[in-house]
C-alpha cells in the first residue's frame, strides 16, 4: 500500500523545539515550524484501519491492540458512537503504562490536523520546559481504550516526516495570543471526512445563544481524573463577547478575554475540561452537511463552573483564517 494511503500514523514531537534531538523551530514568513524525520519501526502490514497516529522521534502509525491508560473527558456530555465524529483526533504521549491521551485535535484536511498551540509548544521563561517526547495521534476512533482493562490501543509505526506549524500570533513564553497550530502530515488520511472551517470575518455561527458542540477525551470532572473509555460530546451555548469579557476581565493577560481572537461558550455543568485542549467547538448543520468548526479548545477557569465559560480560539478571525488557508481549501 502506498505511503499516501489510508490511516497514516506518525510521530509527533510535541514539546518542541529541541534541535539536538533532530527537530527545529524557525521563524517562517507566516508561522513557526517544527520539523522532524523518523525511521522505520514496524512493518506497514501491521497497520490497522481507521486510525491515525504519530510518535515524537519520527514515526507514522496506525492503531492496533496494545496498551496505555486514557484520561477522562468532557463534562456533562454523553458517549459518541463510532463514526459520529470521525474527524476528531486524540493526541497521546507516553505515560507510566504506555501511551495516554492529553490533547485533542481535528482533521481539517487530508494531511492536516488542527490543534491548540499550547498542546505542541510549552515554554518556561521562553525556554522549552521538557525534552520532546514520543507522541501519537489517533483519528476516527471513538473508543480509545479497552473497557475491561482501561488500556489504550497500541500503535504500529511507519517511517515518514511531519511538520508542526504554530501560529505566529501565539506567545509561548507568556501563554497568550492566537492558540492555534497545525500538524502537517507527509501523507494523506484516506476515507475519513474532514471538518469544515468558517469564512474569514463571518459571525453567522457566533451569535449568542447558538448551540454548538465540543467533544473530546478530557476530564469528566473538574475535581479529579475519572477513567473513561469513550469519546464524549456535549452541546454548549455560545455567549456574547461582553459576557465573556465579564467572566474574564483581567488584569492578567493570560486570563483576559480577547473578542477578536476568541469566543466563549458553556453553561453550569456542561463544558470542556483538561485533556480536551486542542479539540473543536463546532456546529452540526441541520441539513446533515459537513460540520463547521468555530473554535479550538483553549482555556477556562475550572471546568463547567457557574460564571466561567470555556474559552476557544476563534477560527473566523482573519489572522487565523489566513494562517489556516495554507493547509486547507475553503
TrEMBL record:
<keyword id="KW-1015">Disulfide bond</keyword>
<dbReference type="InterPro" id="IPR009003">
    <property type="entry name" value="Peptidase_S1_PA"/>
</dbReference>
<keyword id="KW-0378">Hydrolase</keyword>
<keyword id="KW-0732">Signal</keyword>
<keyword id="KW-0964">Secreted</keyword>
<keyword id="KW-0720">Serine protease</keyword>
<dbReference type="InterPro" id="IPR001254">
    <property type="entry name" value="Trypsin_dom"/>
</dbReference>
<dbReference type="Pfam" id="PF00089">
    <property type="entry name" value="Trypsin"/>
</dbReference>
<dbReference type="GO" id="GO:0006508">
    <property type="term" value="P:proteolysis"/>
</dbReference>
<dbReference type="InterPro" id="IPR018114">
    <property type="entry name" value="TRYPSIN_HIS"/>
</dbReference>
<protein>
    <submittedName>
        <fullName>Serine protease</fullName>
    </submittedName>
</protein>
<dbReference type="InterPro" id="IPR043504">
    <property type="entry name" value="Peptidase_S1_PA_chymotrypsin"/>
</dbReference>
<dbReference type="GO" id="GO:0005576">
    <property type="term" value="C:extracellular region"/>
</dbReference>
<dbReference type="InterPro" id="IPR033116">
    <property type="entry name" value="TRYPSIN_SER"/>
</dbReference>
<dbReference type="InterPro" id="IPR001314">
    <property type="entry name" value="Peptidase_S1A"/>
</dbReference>
<dbReference type="GO" id="GO:0004252">
    <property type="term" value="F:serine-type endopeptidase activity"/>
</dbReference>
<keyword id="KW-0325">Glycoprotein</keyword>
<feature type="domain" description="Peptidase S1">
    <location>
        <begin position="74"/>
        <end position="330"/>
    </location>
</feature>
<keyword id="KW-0645">Protease</keyword>
Amino acid at each position: 500500500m502506498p505511503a499516501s494511503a489510508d490511516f497514516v500514523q506518525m510521530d509527533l514531537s510535541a514539546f518542541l523545539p529541541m534541535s539536538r534531538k533532530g527537530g527545529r523551530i524557525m521563524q517562517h514568513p507566516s508561522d513557526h515550524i517544527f520539523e522532524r524525520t523518523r525511521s522505520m519501526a514496524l512493518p506497514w502490514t501491521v497497520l490497522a484501519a481507521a486510525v491515525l497516529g504519530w510518535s515524537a522521534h519520527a514515526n507514522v502509525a496506525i492503531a492496533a491492540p496494545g496498551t496505555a491508560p486514557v484520561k477522562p473527558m468532557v463534562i456533562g456530555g454523553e458517549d459518541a458512537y463510532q463514526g459520529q465524529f470521525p474527524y476528531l483526533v486524540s493526541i497521546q504521549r507516553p505515560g507510566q503504562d504506555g501511551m495516554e491521551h492529553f490533547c485533542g485535535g481535528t482533521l481539517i484536511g487530508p494531511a492536516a490536523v488542527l490543534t491548540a498551540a499550547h498542546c505542541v509548544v510549552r515554554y518556561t521563561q521562553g525556554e522549552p520546559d521538557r525534552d520532546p517526547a514520543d507522541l501519537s495521534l489517533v483519528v476516527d476512533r471513538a473508543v480509545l481504550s479497552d473497557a475491561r482493562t482501561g488500556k489504550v490501543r497500541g500503535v504500529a509505526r511507519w517511517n515518514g516526516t511531519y511538520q508542526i506549524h504554530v501560529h505566529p500570533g501565539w506567545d509561548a513564553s507568556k501563554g497568550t495570543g492566537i492558540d492555534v497550530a497545525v500538524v502537517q502530515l507527509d501523507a494523506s488520511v484516506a476515507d475519513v471526512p474532514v471538518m469544515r472551517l468558517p469564512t474569514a470575518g463571518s459571525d453567522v455561527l457566533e451569535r449568542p445563544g447558538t448551540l454548538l458542540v465540543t467533544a473530546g477525551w478530557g476530564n469528566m470532572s473538574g475535581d479529579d481524573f475519572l477513567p473513561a473509555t469513550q469519546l464524549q460530546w456535549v452541546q454548549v451555548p455560545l455567549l456574547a463577547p461582553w459576557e465573556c469579557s465579564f467572566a474574564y476581565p483581567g488584569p492578567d493577560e493570560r486570563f483576559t478575554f480577547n473578542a477578536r481572537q476568541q469566543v466563549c461558550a458553556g453553561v453550569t455543568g456542561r463544558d470542556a475540561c483538561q485533556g480536551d485542549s486542542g479539540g473543536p467547538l463546532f456546529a452540526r448543520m441541520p441539513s446533515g452537511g459537513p460540520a463547521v468548526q468555530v473554535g479550538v479548545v483553549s482555556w477556562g477557569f475550572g471546568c463547567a463552573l457557574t460564571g466561567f465559560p470555556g474559552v476557544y480560539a476563534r477560527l473566523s478571525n482573519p489572522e487565523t483564517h489566513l494562517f489556516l488557508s495554507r493547509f486547507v481549501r475553503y
